[in-house]
Structure prediction request, 346 residues.
Amino acid sequence: MPALPRVDRLKPIYTAAKALNFGWRFSDFLKIPNYNGISRYTNQLHRVTFRFCKQSEDSVGVRNFIEERLVEIGKQNPSVVIYAQPVRNTTPTIRAEYGNGRQLQINAKNLSMDDITKDVHLLFSRSGNPVTKLESRQSALVPSIQGQWTPITWLSTAMNTENLPNKNLSTFKSCKTSATEYLQQKNAE
Amino acid sequence: MLRSMTRGIFSKIAKNRRFSTEPQIIETEKVQQEVLEAISKEVSSSSRLFAIVYVNGRQWKVSDGDLISLEGNLPLNVGDEIKLEKVLMVGGTNFSIFGRPFLDSNSVEVDAVVVEKNTTNPELKYVHLNHNQTKIVNWKSDEATVLRIKSVIAKNI
Prediction:
């Protein structure tokens, strides 16, 4: 295993898929690296590298993407370094490196330009943390502000010094009038 | 605003409901004023507040710096700042204010930033039929939008 494992460890093959449900799985709490967004948001993507072949049919989509959309995206995200790297007979890949040192690589073989646009958009909006099963859809800095509720939180302290059982404390209190009370009220009127 | 609303409730309760002990109205106005003054003092002391907001079809209890993960690819870009306006409740260490159902959006501000948009971890569903040469794997994964709550601020209470 490399020192810094890749962001996505899923392999789209059947045996790996079996291990995902029945083997050991990653689960984590919702996290964002570098306290991002607490005071201001900074883009977590630092570098994107497009590896493609100038001739082969597999990298047509990547070539079209580089020709038509890459410059525009580069202008929109001035903080991101973008490399376009022609390599002969290579499998076209898009590799993204994030601020927390992790990297994510997408195999762009035989993908159309629209698919690649979608993938690049995903790379740009990821934070760099691996996709894991979430323990909860929310995470908080402070667990509770008013304190945890217990059954005795709002009980009156009068009970502390009484000798129990006490007739006064053990009557059932309700805002609804009982039949007896209703009749008593009627008689009084 | 709050004052007039609560006055309405009290008068209704006194007329319509029957209590086991006869209800007595004790200087409501004065009590309310005291409570509201105490709350506005608490709020101005810049202690941590929490709010219950309605986003994405459910209620979330949020405070400063919380992360919430919303379902779906929402029409927001990463880095966008949004204001959550459906606030059902605000509370501090010593008080809570409830809306009916919502609080006035001028008096409570919940600001959030879109921090990440990603996909959820795939859930797998297998269909395997014996002696039938049938093996189906469904990878079910959804898109998610992660918000960070920047601040929960209450004022003009």
Notes: Chain A touches chain B at residues 10, 14, 17, 20-21, 26, 30-32, 36-38, 41, 43, 122, 124-127, 131-134, 137-142, 145-146, 173-178, 181 (CB under 8 Å). The helical segments of chain A are 14-22, 60-68, 70-76, 113-125, 167-170, 179-188. The mean pLDDT of chain A is 87.
